[in-house]
Specification:
This protein is of the alpha/beta class. Helices cover 34% and strands 19% of the residues.
């Protein structure tokens, strides 16, 4: 580690006392001592966590030379932001927002147009400062809004931008809050009738309007329970559908009839799915046909006629609860204090700090799937095809999250947003000739049924990750409610 030369120059050499009562070393000298200790261990696996992040120019040159030697015949994992440290690595993984967004060797990644290439140019090419790189990565996404989205979006933006004028609606919010409290208290006191299913019921919902990521969590939870030996059934409201209820749904069901989420839930989980605005009727229909151990309700936190064993609330990690006010002065269906009463709070994307013990889930892009040919390609391969122009079209509650997920993959989409549960027409999907269109998996069911699509259309498939901490928290919640979960070896 080239530490011996400065150690010999210390007052007492190896016997020199360091620290507050002795000699103070520079950051580079401390790093060289730490790396020397790692070398002396002579382990077959070496992990270098920002090993060159605190080095002066002289120390960095010496350490870089030493690293080349110490890596020989060892498996070495390097966690670093200085690209000079990792250019020769066999495999490079680029992490952004807690998830892997790119992978490959240096030559492959630097030729692409993703985060690694941008970072490399900012460090080693003239005219690409770190300031410019950050500005490019964090640029606002321009969204082409449908007229209906504009009308509804003004109020939503005001809620989440903490504008002053929604406070003028506070008298109506106070009335709404009184109604909400009165209604819930009637169920809790037994004055309004509720029904308890013979099997445990888990409700996954939110306390604010708009997309927070409930359905991806329902998919993850269904798979998690199934892997642990539980037979799972799902009930949903069927938003956007036009059916006679209750309606049993499979992966081939028409989204115009069954709603946006239900066919996707059936396809992704393999579980029986029933949609009905009346959650009690939906659960009764589900249990009349299927043998299930646990029922998951996608949304329905405020549907108190259905008694529940576990309540899970999903919160958007970026937007939080907005201004924290009740409808219509803010986005809340129930007061923020409701979060302290539920069993588990899951923040989508990043922690909110709203309650202690919240877990964070991450949405990871797993594939782009062609709507017609069903060709399936990895996000890295899709980004490498350089589809230009690329149009991202969405009819979901939070189109900005969809757009950000594409930008994180190194794509540069033109974003067109429609209201949640929008019924698409061919004109809605129109784009310039030779343009490629990307939609959400939620919208894919409706768009797939259309004839004469004007452009090549792909949809983005995502998976939800919660990590070991989230799984432990969930296991504890179920145990507290008397629901035993088998461990998976």
């Amino acid at each position: 580690a080239n530490a011996e030369e400065f150690v010999r120059s210390l007052p007492n050499g190896l016997d020199t006392e360091l620290g507050d009562n002795g000699v103070l070393l520079s950051g580079g000298q401390r790093q060289r001592i730490a790396i020397a200790r790692a070398f002396l261990k002579d382990a077959p696996l070496l992990i270098l966590d920002e090993a060159t992040s605190d080095l002066d120019t002289e120390s960095e040159r010496l350490i870089q030379n030493a690293l080349k030697e110490v890596m020989r015949d060892r498996t070495t994992v390097v966690i670093a932001h200085r690209l000079s440290t990792i250019e020769k690595a066999d495999a490079i993984y680029v992490v952004d927002g807690g998830v892997i967004v790119e992978q490959g060797n240096h030559d492959v990644l630097v030729e692409g147009d993703g985060p690694y290439s941008l970072l490399y140019r900012s460090q080693f090419e003239d005219g690409h400062s770190e300031k410019n790189r950050v500005a490019q990565r964090s640029r606002p996404i321009e969204v082409d809004l449908d007229d209906r989205q504009v009308r509804g979006g003004m109020l939503v933006r005001a809620w989440y931008d903490h504008s002053y004028w929604p406070r003028l609606l506070q008298p109506l919010a106070a009335l709404f809050g009184w109604i909400v409290r009165k209604r819930r208290s009637r169920y809790l006191a037994g004055w309004s009738s509720s029904w308890r299913a013979p099997v445990p019921v888990v409700v996954v919902g939110n306390i604010n309007i708009g997309g927070t990521g409930k359905t991806p969590l329902v998919i993850w939870l269904s798979k998690w329970l199934t892997a642990r030996g539980k037979r799972v059934g799902i009930v949903s409201r069927g938003y956007g559908g036009k059916a006679r209820y209750p309606l049993r749904v499979n992966n081939n069901s028409n989204s115009e009839v069954a709603g946006d989420e239900a066919p996707m839930l059936a396809a992704r989980t393999g579980c029986p799915v029933v949609v009905d605005p009346d959650r009690v009727r939906a659960v009764k229909n589900l249990l009349s046909v299927n043998q299930v151990d646990v029922v998951i309700s996608d949304d329905g936190l405020q549907h108190y006629a259905l008694e529940r064993d576990v309540e899970i609330v999903v919160v958007d990690g970026n937007r939080g609860l907005g201004n924290g006010r009740l409808l219509p002065a803010g986005p809340l269906r129930e007061p923020a204090s409701r979060l302290a009463e539920v069993d588990w709070v899951v923040a989508n994307g990043e922690a909110t700090g709203l309650v202690e013990g919240e877990s964070v889930m991450k949405a990871v892009a797993t594939a782009f799937i062609n709507l017609r040919s069903l060709e399936r390609v990895s996000p890295q391969e899709f980004a490498g095809r350089n589809y230009e122009p690329l149009y991202a079209i969405a009819g979901i509650g939070n189109p900005a999250r969809f757009a950000q997920s594409l930008v994180a993959l190194g794509l540069d989409p033109v974003v067109r947003a429609f209201p949640d549960h929008h019924s698409f027409s061919v004109e809605d999907l129109s784009a310039p000739a030779h343009a490629t269109v990307v939609i959400t998996e939620k919208d894919a069911g409706k768009v797939r049924a259309m004839d004469d699509l004007p452009n090549e259309v792909w949809y983005l498939e995502i998976e939800t990750l919660l990590g070991e901490e989230g799984e432990r928290r969930l296991t504890d919640v179920f145990a507290q409610r008397g629901i035993l979960i088998e461990t998976v070896s």
